[in-house]
């Protein structure tokens, strides 16, 4: 809550390595905003809430929580099998199996499930960057 990518990480990484913050930010935003506006067989669906829940759940697993986010959304939107998959992919990727991949969202398209994986990896990368950049900030002050 007191050290975010938008408010702290972006500017520090740009200060340390010119323009890399813009490239990383563009990468995070591109994956976060990627959508076909579909969910399984439903079309014209706003998936923003789901994408935010996935991203914030990964950050929460890494100990990063935001005061302005209602974590009840995570429990409403992410079923248990998906949470198990998320934890495995983000914390123990070498343990991820096809069976685990197949066990959640059975009716969804593979492209939607691949997007979930992209979101998880970008959320993990951002969380890891936040920890590293926060340590650098503490060292510099």
From TrEMBL:
<dbReference type="InterPro" id="IPR006730">
    <property type="entry name" value="Sestrin"/>
</dbReference>
<dbReference type="GO" id="GO:1990253">
    <property type="term" value="P:cellular response to leucine starvation"/>
</dbReference>
<dbReference type="GO" id="GO:0070728">
    <property type="term" value="F:L-leucine binding"/>
</dbReference>
<dbReference type="GO" id="GO:1901031">
    <property type="term" value="P:regulation of response to reactive oxygen species"/>
</dbReference>
<dbReference type="GO" id="GO:0016684">
    <property type="term" value="F:oxidoreductase activity, acting on peroxide as acceptor"/>
</dbReference>
<dbReference type="GO" id="GO:0071233">
    <property type="term" value="P:cellular response to L-leucine"/>
</dbReference>
<dbReference type="GO" id="GO:0016239">
    <property type="term" value="P:positive regulation of macroautophagy"/>
</dbReference>
<dbReference type="GO" id="GO:1904262">
    <property type="term" value="P:negative regulation of TORC1 signaling"/>
</dbReference>
<protein>
    <submittedName>
        <fullName>SESN3 protein</fullName>
    </submittedName>
</protein>
<dbReference type="Pfam" id="PF04636">
    <property type="entry name" value="PA26"/>
</dbReference>
<dbReference type="GO" id="GO:0005634">
    <property type="term" value="C:nucleus"/>
</dbReference>
């Amino acid at each position: 809550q007191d050290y975010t990518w938008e408010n702290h990480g972006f500017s520090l990484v740009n200060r340390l390595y010119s323009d890399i913050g813009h490239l990383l930010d563009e990468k995070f935003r591109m994956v976060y905003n990627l959508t076909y506006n579909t969910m399984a067989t439903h079309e014209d669906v706003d998936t923003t809430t789901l994408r935010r829940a996935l991203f914030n759940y990964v950050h929460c697993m890494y100990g990063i929580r935001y005061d302005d986010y209602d974590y009840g959304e995570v429990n409403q939107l992410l079923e248990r099998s998906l949470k198990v998959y998320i934890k495995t992919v983000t914390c123990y990727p070498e343990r991820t199996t096809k069976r685990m991949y197949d066990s959640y969202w059975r009716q969804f398209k593979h492209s939607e499930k691949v997007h979930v994986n992209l979101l998880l990896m970008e959320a993990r990368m951002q969380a890891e960057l936040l920890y590293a950049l926060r340590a650098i900030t503490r060292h510099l002050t």
